[in-house]
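User: Here's a protein and a ligand (flavin-adenine dinucleotide). What would the complex look like?
Assistant: Let me lay out the input and then the predicted complex.
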Amino acid sequence: MKPSFPDYRLRCGWNALLSRREPAPALSTDIDSDVAIIGAGYTGIAIAKRWQTHYPDQSVALIDSSEIGEGNPGRNSGFLLETALAEDADAANLDRMRRSNAMIAATLQDILQDIEDSGASVDIARAGTYRAAASDIGARSIARYEAFLQASELPYEKLTKSDLQQRIGSSYFQEGLYSPHCYLAQPAQLIRALFAALPDTVSCFENTPALSIENRSSRWLVTTPKGNIQCDTLFLANNAFAKSLGIGQSQLVAMYTYAGLTPALPESLHSQLGSDSNWGLLPTHRLGSTLRRTVDQRLLIRSFHDYEHEASSSHVRDSLTRRMHARFPQLKGISLESVWGGAVGFTYNGGLVWGEEKPGLFVSAGCNGGGTVKGTLLGRLLADLAVGADVPDVTDLFGKASWMPPEPIRALGFHITSQLEQWAGRAEM
Ligand SMILES: Cc1cc2nc3c(=O)[nH]c(=O)nc-3n(C[C@H](O)[C@H](O)[C@H](O)COP(=O)(O)OP(=O)(O)OC[C@H]3O[C@@H](n4cnc5c(N)ncnc54)[C@H](O)[C@@H]3O)c2cc1C
């Protein structure tokens, strides 16, 4: 049987760059709480914070199977987008996009405020983002995204192959776009800071996986290895792993994707890496590769996916290194200092598993690879929904996850679709 929580083989490279922190103790006894939240990621932290603004005197227990910074929320590429992802960029849908983008932009400002309140130092800057195409399939995606930006009256710059080479030091791409609507952060620092900014009234337990949930006499019981939690209201904010607790099983899959960081590059190489010293580049293909150059002069590559399992360390290292060297041949002598994987809560149509699933049981899952800012927003709105406050129509704004067939048809469908997509868009991989 699959575990009900992520248990990664490889350490998170971002977290390995930070000094060690003392985790909150694991739950070691039975407790009673008004509210329990499973998952201390962007979504879970936002739920806890919002609940406390509604009911400052109620008890809130927040548990996570991992340690803050080491788990999934610290494993991402650190893009905090102020607008929706390219796949969502549909010029015919502008009103919906404007409303969701306005909420996402406001949420990002709140995240910046939370970082400031935490007093922690976080590498975060409004560096913007490139999108670049290495093939005609990528160029068509850029054209669609440009149509969206134009229709939304959002600023952007169009870039030729030589512009890109001059700015990011890679001649791999044919053409691209730069848009300023994105912050780049060190994600392990970021999640540590957001966690640190939680009010003291939230009781946090790290290294505490929820093994099962059960409804008992109109309350909820969460079982963990060394203690159980009884609560009136239970939130699942554990993304793809909600389905391991019996929720969203016909809508969610755990898609693993991988990232690697080089060591800080020697100064002798900086001049070969373009004029921009802190940048991020998102793929034009949904299975394509993300790139970053960080403030401390490392390159990051995030690429390829696996269905419901984490690939072997050697395969992750070899594949990421090959893809990085294809884009930056000048780094041929440099290997990756760290590589790691992370699970993305994926839904077939990109919609969400969001709302009250059963009386007193609320869930927000299905980030589809872009859930740092969106997760924060959706967590906050879920807490509002649970207390009966007015909330916008989340399904209308962000979609509802569609049904997927059961295994083994689901896995077969994924493998066939991804093989076909990867072959057609191979230059973007
Ligand atoms: C390599 C990679 C790169 C990415 N890059 C980006 C990016 O640049 N920008 C972006 O917006 N998104 C990115 N994503 C996606 C992003 O990480 C997620 O969208 C985001 O973390 C979702 O936040 P969340 O709080 O909803 O869920 P998560 O971050 O997945 O947090 C869920 C938490 O629940 C915990 N948990 C799971 N099961 C249990 C259990 N049974 N009991 C207790 N705790 C449990 C986990 O340990 C985790 O801490 C990337 C993902 C990966 C893997």
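Summary: The longest strand covers residues 227-236.
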